[in-house]
Structures are given as C-alpha cells and as structure tokens.
C-alpha cells in the first residue's frame, strides 16, 4: 500500500485550463506522507514570510499565492496556523524534497 499527498496552487485562476493540482504518490507510510505535506506547507509559508509585515498578512498571502498540500488525516489548516506563529528554525523543516518518493 502506498500513500498520496494532494497538492495545489491557490493562485490558479478558475478559468485556467490547468487546474493547478497535482499528486505526489508512492509514500511508504501515512506518517511520511504527512511529514512531506507539513514540510511542503512550511516551505511555502517561509518563502512568503519575507514579504509579510505580520501574521494576518502572511496568512492572506499564503491563501492567495501559496501552494497547499494535504493527505488523509492531516489537518492542514491547523498546521498553517502553527507555521505562521512559529517560524522554521532549521532547513530540514522545509526540505520536503528529501521525502519525495519520486526524485
């Protein structure tokens, strides 16, 4: 059995024929899929943090221009709030590529 992370781009226009969604398949466990989604979201928020004045602006920017990731059993909304309130302190926290089962 393998696990999948569903990703997408908040910035995609509804009229765009590319729906801005993709899947990353082949994770060996739900835990690894969840960690990939967590790192993916954190990387998005940290990239946007440089241009945000405060937490409210950062969340607005993420929901407008960021990319999301979700997998079964993962509360991405709570994780977004956590990442906004607690900046990453180590590169590994944003290194989702290290967990990609399809390098």
In a few lines, what is going on in this structure?
This protein is α+β, with helices and mostly antiparallel strands. The protein has three helices and three strands, in the order ββααβα. The two termini are 19 Å apart.
Percent in strands: 15-25%
- The Cα radius of gyration reads 14 Å
Cα separation of the termini: 19 Å
Coarse morphology? globular
Number of strands: 3
Summarize the biggest pleated sheet: 3 strands, antiparallel
Number of domains: 1
Helix content: 25-40%
- Give the averaged pLDDT, no decimals: 94
Structural class: alpha+beta
What is the count of DSSP helices, taking H or I runs of 4+ residues? 3
User: Low-confidence stretches at least 5 residues in length (pLDDT < 50)?
Assistant: none
Order of helices and strands: EEHHEH
- The side-by-side strand order for the widest beta sheet comes to 2-1-3
How would you sum up this structure, described in words?
With about 100 residues, the protein is an alpha+beta fold. It has one domain. It has three helices and three strands; from the N terminus they run ββααβα. The chain has helices at about 30-50, 55-65, 75-85; strands at about 5-10, 20-25, 65-70. Strands 2-1-3 form a three-stranded antiparallel beta sheet. It starts with a strand and ends in an 18-residue tail after the last helix.
